[in-house]
Structure formats: structure tokens, C-alpha cells
Write a structure and sequence with these properties.
Order of helices and strands: HEEEHEHHEEEEEEEEEEHEEEHHEHEE
Oligomer: single chain
Bound molecules: zinc ion
Structural class: alpha/beta
Helix content: 25-40%
Radius of gyration: 20 Å
Number of helices: 8
CATH topology: Metallo-beta-lactamase, Chain A
Distance between the termini: 66 Å
Number of strands: 20
CATH superfamily: Ribonuclease Z/Hydroxyacylglutathione hydrolase-like
Shape: globular
Largest sheet: 7 strands, mixed
Length: 330
């Protein structure tokens, strides 16, 4: 009898919490949509171009070689002209030093002290370098000393370097801006997520001379529709490459707690029983097909095997696997 009362109480509490969450979600979604509607984005002046660009995934859910670590978090080294840009800092779920990211950097011969900038797409644990970093609004390359110097960091919200690797100097990027010749942020785009709450995410854009705009995306919480729409407002050139995460944990996911697909729970601005469906993947395919992409490389860290297989089969020429250690030359 007592057990039945207890179970009823727990279910009741869950129902109340879900209702509160739904109200918060609806309000947050309205707020984000209104901010997007009221943001007027002008073409970006003087963004310049680079002659060459490559993207080396330093960390992702898959690795090209057995000596590289892998995890459901990402970090890419973007070489744009003469600039070496570290995009995101991985997950380091086991709080290691060296972190999987630092381990892979050492194996791939990437010197942290030789970076020209760090670009943080958004303040989620799999991009800031860990759960504690997410909680404390900090970021880290590893849970131990890493020589980073006073490298500039561009983040969409206020974050601070962790005590392990101090030195980097953070600038908050709200609006689209040029970061280096041929390199820009498309600016922070807001979204309200179930469980994770509000997020602001930016994507990196590189203008490769004679080719167009390459977009490097973290988790893609902004939605690919809004990212492409923003790129069209900012740049005269077409988007020819899309590299990174689009957050499609549909029919599977990379982080499971028992039967629960955690990424599906956290990654939509709709309740989990409504959002992140196969139809959203199909809609993204239609949009991306309209771009005539030369390269499409999607991160496996936040998309399911099913979702990736849909893109792979719809883009037989443009599709590239995104794996740690496999450089993509644009
Ligand atoms: Zn992510
Ligand atoms: Zn995220």
C-alpha cells in the first residue's frame, strides 16, 4: 500500500515537473523566435578570403586510427590561410589529463601554443571540455597544464579559461563579425532546448577564394535552416561546404542512459515526444541539396548512424566521413 502511494507520488511529481518544463520551454522558444525576428543582419563588409582551407577533426565520435581517442564531443583544427583555429574543446567526460583532445593533439602534432585563436561554438559540455566546465562557465583543453598563451577566444556567451589552462583572452561574439581575413563568425543564434534551456550558438565561416563559403558548425542547435539563412544574409558567395554537427539523434543517439536517448531529450525546442523526427532530417536534406554543395561532412557526435546514412546516400559525391585524424581539404 505504502509502495503504491509512493509510486503515485513520484508520478505526480514527475507530471508537475514536466508541466513546468513545458511552460518554460514554450516561453523560451517564443523569446528566441522573437529575438531572431527582431535581429536585422546586414551583409558583412570586408570579410576578405583565404587561398586555402582545411579542417582536421582532432576529436569526434569516430576516429580514423586506433591510436586516436574518440568521444561524443568535438574539436576541429581549421587552417584558414595562415591562421590555425581551434574550434571547440571536446567533452573529456572522464576528466583526464591529458584529455582525449590533448592526447590526439600530441599524436597529430598540433602544438596548443601555436594556435591563432580558439572558437567556441556554444557553451555545452561536449564543446567546452567537460561537465564541470559547463557548470562553472569555463572551458579547458585538458584537466592539467596546457601552454596556450594569451590566445584570443571567441565565444557566444561569457566563459572563462579554467584554472588548469589560464591565459586565453575571451571576447564574446553576439553579432556576425570578421575574426581574421576570410574568417568570420555568423553571430550567435538563440534557441531554447528541452532540459538544456537557452543556448546561443555561433558557426565559423571561411571564405575560400574561387569556391565560396565553408561553414564549420558545432552542434547545429541553431538549425541548419537558420544557419544557411544567416550565411545568405552575410555573404555574397554561395555556401559550398558544410562541416560539423547538425544534431540529428534520430532513431538512435550517442549518449544513452538505459533506454533513454539523452541527445534527443536535450536537443530540441520541442518536447522529446514531438521533436527531432525523421522528417526534420529529410527537410535538411532538401535544403542542403538546393545549395549544390561540394563538401558535406557531418559529425557523428550528435547524429545517429541512421541520420548519417541518409545524408551519405543522398550526397554520394559531396559526403565525407568526419573522423578524428582525417583531414578534409576544402
Ligand atoms: Zn555537441
Ligand atoms: Zn550542444
Amino acid at each position: 500500500m505504502i509502495a503504491a502511494y509512493f509510486a503515485g507520488g513520484v508520478l505526480g511529481l514527475l507530471a508537475v515537473l514536466t508541466c513546468i518544463k513545458l511552460v518554460v520551454l514554450a516561453r523560451g522558444r517564443k523569446r528566441a523566435l522573437s529575438e531572431i525576428r527582431n535581429t536585422s543582419v546586414e551583409p558583412l563588409p570586408g570579410y576578405g578570403s583565404v587561398d586555402r582551407c582545411s579542417i582536421m577533426p582532432l576529436l569526434d565520435f569516430h576516429a580514423a586510427r586506433g591510436d586516436l581517442k574518440r568521444e561524443p564531443g568535438v574539436s576541429y583544427l581549421v587552417k584558414a590561410g595562415t591562421k590555425r583555429i581551434l574550434v571547440d574543446l571536446g567533452y573529456n567526460h572522464a576528466k583526464e589529463h591529458p584529455s582525449p583532445l590533448l592526447h590526439n593533439m600530441q599524436i597529430l602534432g598540433v602544438d596548443p601554443s601555436a594556435l591563432d585563436m580558439i572558437f567556441i561554438s556554444h557553451a555545452h559540455p561536449d564543446h567546452l571540455g567537460g561537465m564541470r566546465e559547463h557548470r562553472d562557465r569555463t572551458f579547458s583543453v585538458s584537466r592539467g597544464k596546457v601552454k596556450l598563451g594569451r590566445v584570443p577566444v571567441f565565444a557566444p556567451v561569457e566563459v572563462a579559461p579554467s584554472a588548469h589552462n589560464p591565459g586565453p583572452v575571451v571576447q564574446v561574439v553576439s553579432w556576425p563579425r570578421v575574426l581574421a581575413p576570410g574568417v568570420a563568425s555568423i553571430g550567435a543564434i538563440p534557441r531554447e532546448l528541452f532540459l538544456m534551456g537557452p543556448v546561443r550558438e555561433q558557426a565559423l565561416a571561411v571564405h575560400v577564394k574561387g569556391k565560396g563559403i565553408a561553414l564549420v558548425i558545432g552542434c547545429g542547435h541553431q538549425t541548419i535552416e537558420r544557419i544557411i539563412e544567416r550565411a545568405r544574409m552575410l555573404f555574397r558567395e554561395p555556401v559550398f561546404a558544410v562541416v560539423g554537427g547538425l544534431h540529428f539523434p534520430v532513431k538512435g543517439g550517442r549518449i544513452k542512459v538505459g533506454p533513454i536517448n539523452v541527445q534527443k531529450l536535450v536537443g530540441s525546442d520541442l518536447p522529446p515526444w514531438k521533436g527531432l523526427r525523421a522528417s526534420e532530417v529529410e527537410r535538411a536534406i532538401v535544403l542542403l541539396k538546393s545549395l549544390d554543395l561540394e563538401i558535406l561532412a557531418l559529425s557523428p557526435h550528435d547524429s545517429s548512424d541512421w541520420a548519417l546514412s541518409r545524408f551519405r546516400s543522398e550526397f554520394p559525391v559531396a559526403y565525407r566521413e568526419l573522423k578524428a585524424g582525417d583531414e578534409i581539404v576544402l
